[in-house]
């Protein structure tokens, strides 16, 4: 299907999520010497990447030749939370292929990134987008495009179908596991045109710039994980990460991510100080209803009206599940939704691949994500993961 193919998967360093740049700016200002490792994992255990390796390597080589244009730098500089010294740094920036190591053994793709955090942080999203698109090209080259467009219209109609949905807001979070760059672009354009009130924007900076949309995002798991190795006490790592974010953005980009070591452990650290400083929370694993009830109760215990707070849901959502959550909680908080693969890879008869590229070490020390969902925990050190769970009083059996 040639109309969904381009010569190169990534054609701009802005073809990534906003939070990679917001985290990168914080790293430049606060931890420019930190060294990190990232490891790739496919949660689909039966995938065969043996026929994809050469093309993935070529696409990564192309990615490492890209630089931000003056037009792109001007766009970034107009975002009021991006600072001039960061723009000067980005003017010189290019990803370095020496930091990424790729191989394939018996069909299993093995990928590790190792180098300075400041110089490797932008790899994750475009590399995952490359792997996803190359795999789709090779293994599903003839998608049902007419069917995909019909399903997209059904999703749009669902949002339009009820006047009670007038305050429903959602964004595109689908870059890393999209079928292709052009399909994500088509989806975003259709949503922006047909749902101008409900479609809040996209996490993809390139699409936001080119189509005059709001770029959406704050911080990701890796930011919270890194502080497990950047401070004197592990038990204080979440508070240190949140404090670092407040120091950098002074009240802007105020959505905190809750599931690096689980919601219960997060709320123990998210005291009145942080609850007042941050605009809201993001749910990315676990049962969203249970998560919401815990968040509502926490704010109420602190005598904060949760109706003043934004709750962002971003864990494997469909349009139906997002609307269900909206209807259930719209009177108790300000629900917002980041929808990813359901929008940008709902195109094949087969299920989309589920791939991640997560930080596993910082400054030579293991770091980990425990999550609120079984199977989402990730670390290359089982002993450290057990210690992390012990420190934060998490039952490791519930997250592995």
UniProtKB/TrEMBL annotation:
Domain (Nicotinate/nicotinamide phosphoribosyltransferase): residue spans on this chain: 168-394
Segments crossing the lipid bilayer: none
PTM section of the record: Transiently phosphorylated on a His residue during the reaction cycle. Phosphorylation strongly increases the affinity for substrates and increases the rate of nicotinate D-ribonucleotide production. Dephosphorylation regenerates the low-affinity form of the enzyme, leading to product release.
Catalytic activity: 5-phospho-alpha-D-ribose 1-diphosphate + nicotinate + ATP + H2O = nicotinate beta-D-ribonucleotide + ADP + phosphate + diphosphate
Pathway assigned to this chain's UniProt record: Cofactor biosynthesis; NAD(+) biosynthesis; nicotinate D-ribonucleotide from nicotinate: step 1/1
CDD domains: PncB_like (cd01401)
A GO term for molecular function: glycosyltransferase activity
Domain named Nicotinate phosphoribosyltransferase N-terminal: residues: 14-132
Enzyme class: ligase
Pfam families assigned to the protein according to its UniProt record, in alphabetical order: NAPRTase, NAPRTase_N
Residue ranges that the Swiss-Prot or TrEMBL entry lists as coiled coil: none
UniProt EC number: 6.3.4.21
PANTHER family, sorted: NICOTINATE PHOSPHORIBOSYLTRANSFERASE
General function of this protein: Catalyzes the synthesis of beta-nicotinate D-ribonucleotide from nicotinate and 5-phospho-D-ribose 1-phosphate at the expense of ATP.
Family: Belongs to the NAPRTase family.
HAMAP family reported for this sequence: NAPRTase
Annotated protein name in UniProt: Nicotinate phosphoribosyltransferase
């Amino acid at each position: 299907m040639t109309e969904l193919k381009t010569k190169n998967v990534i054609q701009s360093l802005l073809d990534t999520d906003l939070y990679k740049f917001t985290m990168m700016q914080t790293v430049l200002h606060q931890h420019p010497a930190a060294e990190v490792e990232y490891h790739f994992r496919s949660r689909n255990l039966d995938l065969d990447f043996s026929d994809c390796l050469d093309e993935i390597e070529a696409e990564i080589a192309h990615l490492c030749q890209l630089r931000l244009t003056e037009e792109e730098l001007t766009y970034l500089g107009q975002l009021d939370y991006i600072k001039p010294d960061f723009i000067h740094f980005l003017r010189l920036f290019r990803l370095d292929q020496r930091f990424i190591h790729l191989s394939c053994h018996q069909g299993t793709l093995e990928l590790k990134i190792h180098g300075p955090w400041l110089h490797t942080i932008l790899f994750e999203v475009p590399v995952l987008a490359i792997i996803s698109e190359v795999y789709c090209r090779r293994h599903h080259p003839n998608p049902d495009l007419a069917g995909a467009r019909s399903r997209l219209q059904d999703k749009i109609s669902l949002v339009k179908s009820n006047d009670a949905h007038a305050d429903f807001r959602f964004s595109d979070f689908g870059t890393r596991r999209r079928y292709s760059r052009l399909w994500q672009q088509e989806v975003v354009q259709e949503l922006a045109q047909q749902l101008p009130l409900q479609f809040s924007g996209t996490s993809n900076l390139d699409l936001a710039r080119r189509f005059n949309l709001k770029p959406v995002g704050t911080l990701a798991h890796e930011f919270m994980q890194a502080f497990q190795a950047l401070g004197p006490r592990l038990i204080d790592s979440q508070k240190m990460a949140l404090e670092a974010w407040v120091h950098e953005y002074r009240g802007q980009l105020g959505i905190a991510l809750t599931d690096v070591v689980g919601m219960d452990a997060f709320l123990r650290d998210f005291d009145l100080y942080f609850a007042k400083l941050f605009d809201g929370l993001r749910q990315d694993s676990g049962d969203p209803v249970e998560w919401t009830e815990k968040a509502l109760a926490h704010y109420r215990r602190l005598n904060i009206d949760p109706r003043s707070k934004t709750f962002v849901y971003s864990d494997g959502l469909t349009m139906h599940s997002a609307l269900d959550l909206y209807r259930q909680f719209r009177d108790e908080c300000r629900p917002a939704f980041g929808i990813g693969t359901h929008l940008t890879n709902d195109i094949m008869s087969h299920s989309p691949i589920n791939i991640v590229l997560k930080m596993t070490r910082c400054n030579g020390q293991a770091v980990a994500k425990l999550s609120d969902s079984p199977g989402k925990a990730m670390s290359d050190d089982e002993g450290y993961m057990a210690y992390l769970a012990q420190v934060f009083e998490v039952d490791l059996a519930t997250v592995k």
